[in-house]
């Protein structure tokens, strides 16, 4: 996993956090929830190939 991916995840986290706070204070809690859900899905799509690679490595490790 590259450091660049970690910086991307941190940037999305900060952006979603600030956006969520702004939306909550303006009384739009539903949009804040959707923004945090969208951030979670975005990061999940970035991390999913690494999780798949991890499971493949574990499968190869225990294969007989």
UniProtKB/TrEMBL annotation:
Protein name: Stage III sporulation protein AC
Coiled coil spans: none
NCBIfam families per UniProt: spore_III_AC
Record's keyword terms, sorted: Membrane, Transmembrane, Transmembrane helix
InterPro entries: Spore_III_AC, Spore_III_AC/AD
Residue ranges of the TM segments: 6-23, 32-51
